[in-house]
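Why do we bother with a discrete structure alphabet at all? Because it lets us treat a fold like text: something you can write down, compare, and reason about line by line. To make this less abstract, here is a complete entry for starch synthase. Read it the way you would read a sentence in a foreign language you are learning: slowly, and without expecting to understand everything at once.
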Amino acid sequence: MNNFLFVAAENDGIPKCKAGGMGDVVRDVPRQISERGDMAHVVVPSYSRLHQNGTFITNLNLNLRGTVYVAELYEVAPKKEFANLHHYVIHHPEITAGEIGHIYHDDPEEAFYTDNIKFTIFCTGVAEAIKVGAFGDLDIVHMHDWHSSLLLFLKTYHPEYQSLKKMRFVYTIHNLAIQGIRPFYNNYSSIGNWFPTVPIDTQRLMDKRYQDCINLMAVGIRLADAVHTVSPSYKEDVLRPSTPPEFIGGESLELDLQEANNQGRLFGILNGSNYKNIRVAEKGLLYRNTVKALFRWLQEESKKYKADFLAHTGEKVMEYVTDRPKFIVSSVARLTEQKFYFFKRSPEAFVEILNRLKKVDGIFMLLGTGAPEYEELFRQLSYEHKNFIFTNGQSEDLIDSIYLETDLYFMPSLFEPCGISQMLAMRNGNPCLVHNTGGLRDTVEHMKTGFSFDGKTYDDKIKNMILVLDQALDVFVNDKPKWKEIQDNAKKMRFTWEKSVDDYYKYLYSINQ
């Protein structure tokens, strides 16, 4: 039996620990491993909330900043029990909840300042827990994004954690653009402050653009035994330099990624989707679930300043309860540059989409929270356009209804390492209209399983986005058999975790099954 540890910022295998697609992956891969008869452990920060009602396992004494920090390891109850699968959180008062998904902080003055504090304590706690055998005798440690990569610094340089060198360390890149860059010295949130007695190999750890800083994403790429992008096409993308906004590639880490690739350490394996044990949504509840979510949010203190907008949205939705539109385009995503850059830079293109939909008695439903400037943009557009319903919050029931009951799922990501949303939409026979990038290129085929746009220049992309929407609407209105064929093809597609984890074992874990 192989023994695995997954280390991440998110884990949707437990309640209230997800902000994005990473949470889905960290939920599903350990389940797949446990079903193969191997042992899997998953550990995330507690964010000062997830340890409540957990089972205390042990104290973890950490040498940080020249003093002893005492962190606590808890085992916590999962959403669903699996044999050989255990979930843990690490608690310390400085591992705090952020405003993004109650996980991440947004520090506009000093990027990654607060998050780096909590993930430094968390990673050191994980290293200590491994050292004292809290997860048993481990074979594989699988880390996710920059939040976990400090483990590689500790096992490489810290004299107390040399025992970690006997394990294989795998590093998955979910979002290359978010790199965890912090000063080496002279800052409370610097690595030199936290580890004053550990020699800092600045040449190997530095960000090549900001040479007085560590780049934790780069640390993961440089020091892991295997590095993984979450789709094959995204692997090819990141080996090339970015030329934004036309192309988003290696984000200044392409040379590190090229080196990993040349060393045979870089692998592109598509994420899977779950096709069993899923929440089964009931049809016909789309507008009811929207109204329910709006009323619930109105009662939250943090939503009070949005009360007028929520009431406005509810009033719009009520009209559709009795007078249903003929076509619904939908999108569910965090409101960020990655997901909606095209709409932020070219709001006139989004207005043109709404005008096109109006002609076929169609509406656009968008659900999400995120960057304040994106929230404000979409709230304003919602006030101005009757056929745009923007639900500025999160609701699992409403999300399920959107995936089930809308006609076309819109995913105009500027870049997309893999994407989960398009798989969930396709699972319900909901064709997707996507930007032909990264994992979207690997999962959606134009006019066969959905619709795809691209272009050599930014202006070409915007123009083609509208043209492809016209094409999709034309098929829907004038060629019902073709629309049904695309729906059926989308629903038949299977991006299974079984296949993905087969490749994990072979390439990432170097385990023969």
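What the structure line is telling us, in plain words: The chain has 19 helices and 17 strands. The chain has two domains: 3-272+498-508, 285-493.
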